[in-house]
Amino acid sequence: MAPVCLASLLSLRVLFVFALCLLTLVTNVNLLLIYDRQTLLNLRPPFRNPFQNPLQLKFPGQESRCPPLFSSIPAHLYRAPLPRWRRRRRGRRSGLLVKLKAVRCTDPVAPCLVSLVGVDVELRGRRPTLPYLRKRGRGLHNLRQLPRALPMKGTPIPARMALVNARSLANKTFILKDFFVTHRLDFLYVTETWISGDDSSAFTELLPPDCSYLSAPRSSGRGGGVATVYRTSYNCKQVTLTKTYSSFEASVFKLDPALSMFCAVIYRPPKYNKDFIDDFAVFLAGIMPKYDRILIVGDFNIHVCCPDKAPARDFLNLINSFNLVQLVSAPTQEQGHTLDLILTHGLTTFDLEICDALFSDHMPVLFNVQLPCHTVKFPAPFLCSRTINSHTAAQFSAAFNSTIILPEHQSCNSDVENMSSCLYSTCQTVLDSVAPLKTRLSRLRSEPWLDETTRAVRRECRRAERKWKKDRLQVSFQLLRGSWRSYQKTMKAAKTKHFSDIIASNQHNPRVLFKTINSVLNVPQPVSLENSTEVCEMFMTFFIDKIKNIRTLISPPSFSHSVSTSCSTVLHRFEHVSLSYLEKLISQMKPSGSPNDPVPPRLFKEVFPTLAPYVLDLINGSLIHGSVPSCFKHAVVTPLIKKPGLDSSILSNFRPISKLPFLSKVLEKIVYCQLTTFLEENSILEVFQSGFKPRHSTESALLRVSNDIFLATDAGHHVVLVLLDLAAAFDTVDHQILLSRLESWVGLRGSALEWFRSYLNERSFCVRLGRAESRRATFTCGVPQGSVLGPLLFSLYLLPLGSILRKHGISFHLYADDSQIYIPLKQEEAYSAHQLLECLDDIKTWMSCNFLHLNQEKTEVLLFGPSDVSKAHVDLGVLNDHLKQTATSLGVKLDSNLTFNAHINLVVKSSFFHLRQLAKVKPLLSRHDFEILIHAFISTRLDYCNALYVGLSQKLLARLQLVQNAAARLLTGTRKQEHITPILASLHWLPVRLRIDFKILLFVFKCLHGLAPKYLSDLIQVYNPPRSLRSTNQTQLVVSKTRRKLRGDRAFSVFGPKIWNELPLYLRQINSLSIFKSALKTYFFTLAFN
């Protein structure tokens, strides 16, 4: 014990000595520092210079130095203060404070509290807090736009991708679309789409803006199918496999050929297939030598989580032998298996994440892939637009009334050009003050069926998702799944209501119905055109050169082949119009105009009461003085792709769409009405021209041509029908020849002729794409496209053609630029076609003189005989090379035997295609709306030119009846085994045979009451007995005698009067068209279903 006690005593002594020495050392240190008020204030730097160097603080009477006590401390021992805590405003994920977090700073502090460890250099204090960060609101005057740096070429850009097992894509379209947008994906790989072969309607709902898709539906059976949704900024090209594999399904594509990257989406059915390993090995062997970067994703249905099992072991050995890396290691299925795999080669992937299984029993897999960038993503383009609301019209009128643009009561005598420019400039100035042109970024429009209800359901999904992520309870997970199912149903219902409203409001507008259904069934394919001045110049040069090349092909003859005539009546001037007439005309016109209009057409119609006096003076001044303002003669041309899917890099795949000013269309409409009245009163128009004329149609034209052919063949003659084709006929019209035609053939003189001279002179156009525009070019030929007068002027341009054909005794019929020339070849004349050949030579000569190019390659010839069996040998000379068995004329496929077999096959084929398409949208529509679509898509095809089906065999008509029966079953949902007659009766649909008789009788009624073309009315004669009989007042018609049942009996002039005389007397005595149609349908309905 003695040594221990001795050690304790020594320790106490040592501690005592150490304390004594310490007290000795600190006796001269003042532990309390005392500062007066002024010294404490001097510790703070001046406020006016917050960025002054904190080490350069000045105290009264001293040089720049640190406060006392810290002056001897080296700089590398300074400690930086912790940032001040600031209260965070909750409730905003992307508020201004969060976005400007990097620039948030505190007040400057004393230099002794700021340091850079290990560096003895001059230091800067932190910037003071910006004023708009210390209070609510934003100081917009302190903000400036920073240029965004675009990624450099070759810079790696990660692509966000996801792999999803959908298990019926059509039932999860809106859910997957929200998943794509929320996770900001670039690629979405979907397995088990369950999409059939030609069904793309689901993708119209799924695709986000600026996205496209690749789909590989399952070839047979149910289920399966893979698809890829990707952003269009990536150049993806689908690859067709040289070999098909029975053990798995694949959709393969190349991502940017310059990258040499191959992508494949695989789905292997869960059922065991012994050939899968061999097939997949062959698949890999075909792609591995060709590509440096490979990405293979899909649902392989192989438990790679159990590598001891034979299928998994063989599969892993296979991918290892090909140097593929399998990235998924966690379970991807609810039962804990890893079935969805990602295989890569030569690619860098990161941020792999497995989400919750919300769509099916498989979990989505998200990952990033580093891709070398070979294209630069440009920011969204800017758009210039005006904000026009319900108050704009009143504001425009008030501002316009306060502006004096023309002297009172002197506008009609002033120059029309000055009047138009003054009116345009004033309207432009007023509109700029009321609705100024603003530049904004183009934003993708949301779906039109989104409303507050759908947004509320979507917010509920977000709320359920946050709750599930917070507590991870099974009940929260079930609520989340239920909310997503409710979201899908709500979106479907909203979309259904949207399209039902469109169909109900446009049930008599087939163009809108076709466009609507096409948008539902087919994914719009974007046309990649750069909106630049260079592209506009290219299109303008192409459109001009096209017309120049056609006119170059026209070789003028050595002599002039002109047809002269004299006019008995003359039109010297156009009459001025009244204000009431102008108001009625403008109210009936469609609000379509040019982008250069000073006032948009819809707004113009609203403010027209204010502009009416000035517009009336301008219109009447133009009519009286025979002058058209230059601003009315400028067209804006927009290229439009001819057919979706065509290559947009080929300029010939586009057609020009011309847009003229709205006021120019008003002026043309007034001139058109006055000129048409003059032409009809003096019978100047060609009788056998059915194009662009009221009460004329393609069916009426074909009905007259077929009637003449049937009667000629019934008489034992052969008939030659020649179908002529003109190349760009409207664009090659010569202006001087047209003016000469108006003067000599129509009879225009004085100011009326001068008006057309001014109308055609110095016309110009430019090509516009977005905000880019080409230079102006002048029209040297052609009638203005998109104008009101264009079709009428072309018909007048062709007036001498009828005289040439009549001189040679050739029958003809014209529909715009489509010409049908036919002549009977008689046996007593040895079936000579010499007369026809001479007429064609004269036609070619006349067309060359008038700058019309006859496209001989598209000229078709049909030869009809008196019977289907025997035909005489006819020498047609140069026309033998153009002789066909079938040819298409005005949408009807004619055949040399007049059986219409080819045309009916085409109608049946087209009808069943549209029935399959309509079946896909049936769940979206009510029965009433769906019946409207059936009539628009199917009934119109069955009824088009069905007046030509008279006398066809029951076998051919039965094909058309099958189409109607299928449409009725699809509409009513009845099974195939049920009898069709009660179904048609419940729908009040007449059978096909009676629909043909209905159309014929309708033409007969119109002929009798002056509602049909003259060339059809001349074929119908009312029976007038030579003496007083009981049939005198029974409105019976003359029935011509024929010799052949399959020829003469099918002519309209024979079959029409025959079935008309069989009608009850009360039907024949009806004078109203609407009453006759209703009564006739009731009569036929009784015959069909009584």
From TrEMBL:
CDD domains: RT_nLTR_like. InterPro entries: DNA/RNA_pol_sf (IPR043502), Endo/exonu/phosph_ase_sf (IPR036691), Endo/exonuclease/phosphatase (IPR005135), RT_dom (IPR000477). It comes from Oryzias latipes (Japanese rice fish). PANTHER family: REVERSE TRANSCRIPTASE DOMAIN-CONTAINING PROTEIN. One of its GO terms (molecular function) is catalytic activity. This is Reverse transcriptase domain-containing protein. Residues 621-894 form the Reverse transcriptase domain.
